[in-house]
Amino acid sequence: MEPRELDRRLKHKELAPLVFLWGDESLLIDEVILQIEALALDPAAREFDREIFYGDETEAQLIVTAARTIPWLAAQRLVVVRGAEALPRAADAALIAYCKQPSPSTCLVLTAQRAEASRPLFALLLKTPWEVRFRRL
Question: Is the pTM of this model over 0.90?
């Protein structure tokens, strides 16, 4: 999907349970995450239903557990994984299993600068309908 199409869908209040944002323009990716957060979460419940992970600091099972957790005070949870390319390859199996059957009450957003198509996790993410590449402007 192109960034313009993503913007159109978000303006129409459409959101998927799995979103993959990647590319060189991290500022644009951050702006999209803020748009998704505003769409998915009630400001009063934001701290209860949002979790942010960093690929170089977390384990796949923590991400999957957070994504499978039922929302507390809202209809939806938001789980963001920044720098997914830094996740160890051992994490791929658990994340792939989740991505194939994501929770309908969670929006899992993964971000990366690079998406190595030969890596199983990214091979799957690159085929998802909500995969958006942000090329250098």
Answer: yes
Helix (H) or strand (E) holding 10: helix 3-11
Q: DSSP labels for 59-100?
A: -HHHHHHHHHSPPSSSS-EEEEEE-GGGS-GGGHHHHHHHHH
**What are the Cα distances from residue 53, in Å, to 4, 11, 84, 135?**
26, 26, 9, 23
Burial class for 21, CB neighbours closer than 10 Å (0-12, 13-18, 19+): buried
- 14-36 pLDDT, tens digit per residue, is 999 999 999 999 999 999 999 99
Instruction: Give the type of residue at 5.
Output: E
